[in-house]
Write a structure and sequence with these properties.
Layout: H1 13-22, E1 28-33, H2 34-40, E2 50-57, H3 63-69, H4 74-79, E3 82-85, E4 100-102, E5 110-114, H5 117-123, H6 130-142, H7 147-158, H8 165-184
Parallel strand pairs: 1-5, 2-3
Antiparallel strand pairs: 1-2, 4-5
Helix pairs in contact: 5-7, 6-8
Length: about 180
Amino acid sequence: MRTDPNKSMPEPWLSFLRELDSAVETEIRLDCMGGFVVTMVYGFSRPTADLDVLEIAPREAGKAMLELGVQGGRLHKKYKIYLDPVGVAHAPEDYEERLTEIFPKTFKHLRLCALDPYDLALSKLERNIQKDRDDVKYLAKTVPLDLEVLRQRYQKELRWQLGNPEREDLTLRLWIEAIEEEREV
């Protein structure tokens, strides 16, 4: 992980998440992914107005917090950022074992946990829009990603979950080729 433990979370994220934290009375874990993680953890400079959350645990305890923070909710209107509970994205099967807490001890009840860089990259495979490709290229360069680990994790933990694995096979192959070309320069 690239996050500097002494680095504080920038505004408006800090105030937004503090308000969410004060809305709950028990520990809540948010499994974070997407542009929020790429920017906050790995330092990619690009705007993001949402915090993609793959899992909220425990789910029942997080409902009130989620209502406040989702798009159209009170805190979205106040801060112009929001929680986005991701229902469609697939993540590698054992991603939870590799989560890393980010900004520890910043909140009383919230624990923000980031997908590791390989899981993060693979979670972007199906959508594959330009923003996703840019994020993966950035991760490949800054982490740097071991392309064999990326391939193996895809084959073992993700491919079986996908609706059109042949298409994702091609997407991953094209990503890897682009990364290899960039590394040769």
